Amino acid sequence: AVERTLSIIKPDAVGKNAIGEIMARFEKAGLQIVAAKMLQLDDAKAGGFYAEHKERPFYKDLVGFMTSGPVVVQVLEGENAILKNRELMGATNPKEADAGTIRADFASSIDANAVHGSDSAESAAREIAYFFETSEICPRG
Ligand code: CMP
Q1: What is the rounded CA–CA span in Å between residue 119 and residue 82?
Q2: Ligand 1 geometric centre to CA of 133 (Å)
Q3: Domain Nucleoside diphosphate kinase-like, which positions (predicted)?
């Protein structure tokens, strides 16, 4: 089925000037970027996005990292988009990411891991709505 998923290009990858290369991987895999914007997150916006991790030991560092520089948030649309994006990203920990994945090529640690992608249809709906108004999403049909 055609799905939408939220992708974030994190501050480490933006800092490496890799926005275009990462977006190209999505497009080459057949996903369309139907919404995109660059944002500087603050503690409240980043903390709210990762609210489900609030009790985890890495939460404070995660919010600190996600506010350390600009991010690019995008909505990707396409057949099986949620799983396809997760395959393109590779494992959360870049040491475990398959060769040729975004995290294998651009991430340096489990914190600075280049990209985020929704992990389920429920997360995708919530995460897309967290960053985008319906009017900001531009499907091309
Ligand atoms: P992301 O997909 O953005 O979701 C939560 C993030 O927390 C994850 O990517 C990692 O960058 C970060 N993180 C740090 N430590 C861990 C951990 N032990 N397990 C999972 N995520 C972690």
Answers
A1: 7
A2: 26
A3: 2-139
Q: What angle do CA 2, 40, 106 make, to 5 degrees?
A: 65
Task: Give me the residue label for tokens 């531009």.
Answer: 138
Pocket of ligand 1 (CB under 6 A): 53, 58, 62, 92, 110-111, 113, 116
Global ipTM: 0.97
Q: How far from 11 is each of 47, 75, 107, 114, 128, CA to CA, in Å?
A: 15, 18, 11, 7, 19
Q: Compute, in angstroms, the gap from residue 92 CA to the centroid of ligand 1.
A: 6
| pTM (two decimals) | 0.98
